[in-house]
């Protein structure tokens, strides 16, 4: 498990490391997580022992004793640093979420089309009406104008390119 893989921790990883701030063993870790989260998070034995092995191999945790076939672990300095970084990241996410939840202003409008291909160039309703009209015209045998092909295949290709919406519609460039 490379350090890069621990940029963000899964919930079980986070709670296992959190429960190893003080020395603890596998079963104690599972009990602590369940108690701490009021049963919301449950880490199975297989997941926990797999993660403990990986954490030990990466020197994120260190074994400190073995009593009655129970290995007792604690966080290493590296593990404390990883846990602290994750704690700060989660707090930042909560802070950002709080800002959004408390925001009562209006959203800014999307930018106007500046004729350079950015923003919304043609409202979708208008493009749909154009497509429906051209389909009606081609079915009724009306000419679409001199020099234009009115076959259904050509009309479909023209109108169905770019998701059926035509160039620039609702697709910022």
TrEMBL record:
UniProt lists compositionally biased (Basic and acidic residues) regions at 99-116
Task: Give the InterPro entries listed for this entry.
Answer: Metal_resp_DNA-bind_regulator (IPR052509), Tscrpt_reg_PadR_N (IPR005149), WH-like_DNA-bd_sf (IPR036388), WH_DNA-bd_sf (IPR036390)
Q: List the biased-composition ranges (Polar residues).
A: 131-152
Q: Which residues cross the membrane?
A: none
The UniProt entry, under SUPFAM superfamilies, shows: Winged helix' DNA-binding domain
Transcription regulator PadR N-terminal domain sequence ranges: 18-85
Top-level taxon of origin? Bacteria
- PANTHER family xrefs: PADR-FAMILY TRANSCRIPTIONAL REGULATOR
Q: What is this protein called?
A: Transcription regulator PadR N-terminal domain-containing protein
Q: Which organism is it from?
A: Aminipila terrae
């Amino acid at each position: 498990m490379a350090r890069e893989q621990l940029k963000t921790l899964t919930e079980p990883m986070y709670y296992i490391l959190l429960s190893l701030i003080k020395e603890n063993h596998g079963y104690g870790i599972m009990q602590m997580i369940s108690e701490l989260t009021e049963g919301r998070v449950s880490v199975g034995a297989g997941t926990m022992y797999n993660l403990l092995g990986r954490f030990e191999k990466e020197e994120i945790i260190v074994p400190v004793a073995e009593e009655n076939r129970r290995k007792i672990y604690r966080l290493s300095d590296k593990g404390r640093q990883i846990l602290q970084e994750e704690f700060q990241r989660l707090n930042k996410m909560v802070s950002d979420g709080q800002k959004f939840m408390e925001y009562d202003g209006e959203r800014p409008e999307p930018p106007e089309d500046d004729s350079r291909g950015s923003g919304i160039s043609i409202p979708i309703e208008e493009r749909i009406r154009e497509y429906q009209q051209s389909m009606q015209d081609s079915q009724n045998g009306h000419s679409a104008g001199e020099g234009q092909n009115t076959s259904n295949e050509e009309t479909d290709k023209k109108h169905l390119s770019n998701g059926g919406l035509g160039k620039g519609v609702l697709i910022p460039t």
